[in-house]
Amino acid sequence: ETDTTNTVKKSDMFRGMEFYIVNIDDSFCESGGTVNKPYLENRIVENGGARVQNLMPTTTHIIAAK
Prior knowledge:
- By secondary structure, the chain is of the alpha/beta class.
- It is about 15% helix and about 20% strand.
- It has one helix at about 35-45; strands spanning about 20, 50, 60-65.
- Helix 1 (about 35-45) links the parallel strand 1 and strand 2 (about 50).
- The protein is globular and about 30 Å long.
């Protein structure tokens, strides 16, 4: 699990949303940048969302590369 305790909230864009991220690795982004699970989890928290490590009935979004 990514430590997001120091992530500064910038917006409420994902307020009320819960994300489950699976099958993401450093090769996920084809545009040349590195997008991995910690990067995505930090962006989710930064924008007011929650992330979970296990799929739950409350989960609203799943992000998967495969």
